[in-house]
Amino acid sequence: MSDCCDKAKAPPAAAVVAVERAGAGSCCEPPPGSGRAPPDWLLWGCLTGVVLSYGLFLWSPAFMPQWLHVICHTVFELINTMWWSLLLAVFFVGVLGRIPQELVIAILGRGGSLRGVFRATLAGVLLDLCSHGILMVGMKLYQKGASLGQVMAFLIASPWNSLSLTLILFALIGLPWTLAFIALSMLIAVIAGWIFDRLVARKVLPGNGDHQGLPEGFAFWPALKQHSAAIQWNTALFRDIARDGIAGSRIVLRWLLFGVLLAAAVRAFVDIDQFQSWFGPTLVGLAATLLAATLIEVCSEGSTPIAADLMTRAKAPGNSFAFLMTGVATDYTEVMVIKDTMRSWKIALFLPLVTVPQVVVVALILNSLG
C-alpha cells in the first residue's frame, strides 16, 4: 500500500479542507517554513491545456494541422458534453459536506452489509451524472463514512446507468438489451461491493477510517427534520456550498482534465474505426474491447454510442457490455482518484482485479446468446 503521507500523522479533516482551499492538492501539509502549499502542477497544467485547446477550436486557425484539430475538437466535445454534469457534481459534493454524517450513513444503510451495498448500488443507478461527476460524489460519500464496499458498488453501478443515458441506449439497442445491461451491471456492482467489504473484514484491504455506526436511539426522520429546520436559506449558504464543492472536487478535477487531454491524444493518433473492425464476438474481439476500453478515456456520454456500435455493427452484445463496464473498472482517472482519496494503491488496483473477471464472464455469455 502506498500512502501520500503517514496516516498516523495525517491532518484532521478540517485541516485538509483548509489546505485544499489554499491551493494544495495533497493530503499532506506543506513543508515547514514553506509559507504556503506548493502549486498543484498537474491540475493547473492540465487546466491550461484544456483551456488552450478549447480556445483553439473556437478560433480554428487555418494553419492548424489535422492532428491538432482532432485534439482540440475532442476537448471541445468532451467539455461541452459533461460540463453540466460536473457542475451538478460539484454542487452535490458541497451539499454532502453539509449533511451530518449520521444522515448519510442512515440513507446508505449499515456498512459491511449486503443491504447497505444494495442501497449504494441503487443510489448509483438513480443518480443522473456522468462517470466523472459520479466519481466526485462517490469520494465524498467515502469521506462521509460509507464503507469501502458501498463506495465501490456506487461507482460501478453509476456511470452509464443514469436516466438520460438509459434512454439513449434504449433508442440505440432496444429495450430488452438495455434492461439486461442495467440488471447485469447492478449484479456486478453488488457482488463487487460485497467482495470489497469481505476483504476489509479479513484485513486484506484497509477500511474507511471515517466509518462510524449510528448513535444508539438514532431516528432518521426526526434528525432530518431538525437539521432542515436549522438551515438558513440565503446567498451565503449557496456561496459556501459552491466553495466547499470546488475544494472537495480538486482531486477528481485534476485527473479528469488529464483524462480529457489523454483521450484527445488517443483520438488524434489512433483510428477508432480500425479498432471497431476488430471487435467481433470472439475471444480476440473481446480482448480488443477490453484493451480499447482501458486506453480510450471517454465520459459515459461518449462511451454509449461506441457501445451501441459494437452491438449493431460488430454483432457483439457482450463486447458492448464489456466496453461500458470495463471503462469504469480500468479508468485511470478513477484509479488515480481512488488512490489519492483513500491513500492506498492497493484499493485502487483491486477495483479492476475484482470487477474485470466478472465483466469478462458476463460478456462471454452475452456473446454466446447474441
What does this structure look like?
The protein has 370 residues and is mainly α. It has one domain. The protein has 18 helices and no strands. Helix 3 runs antiparallel to helix 12, helix 9 runs antiparallel to helix 18 and helix 16 runs antiparallel to helix 18. The longest helix is centred in the N-terminal third of the chain and has 31 residues. The radius of gyration is 21 Å and the shape is globular. The two termini are 41 Å apart. The relative contact order is 0.13. The N terminus is likely disordered.
Short description:
By secondary structure, the protein is mainly α. It has 18 helices and no strands. It has one domain (40-210, 220-369).
What oligomeric assembly is this protein in? single chain
> Rg from C-alpha positions?
21 Å
Number of helices: 18
Distance between the termini: 41 Å
* Total number of beta strands: 0
Let me know the average pLDDT.
Answer: 79
- SSE string: HHHHHHHHHHHHHHHHHH
Low-confidence stretches: 1-34
Major sheet: size, sense and barrel closure? none
- Helix/strand-derived class? mainly alpha
Number of domains: 1
Strand content: under 5%
Global shape:
globular
Task: Provide the fold topology.
Blueprint: H1 13-22, H2 41-59, H3 66-96, H4 101-108, H5 114-126, H6 131-143, H7 148-157, H8 163-173, H9 175-201, H10 220-229, H11 235-248, H12 250-269, H13 272-277, H14 283-295, H15 300-312, H16 317-329, H17 332-342, H18 345-369
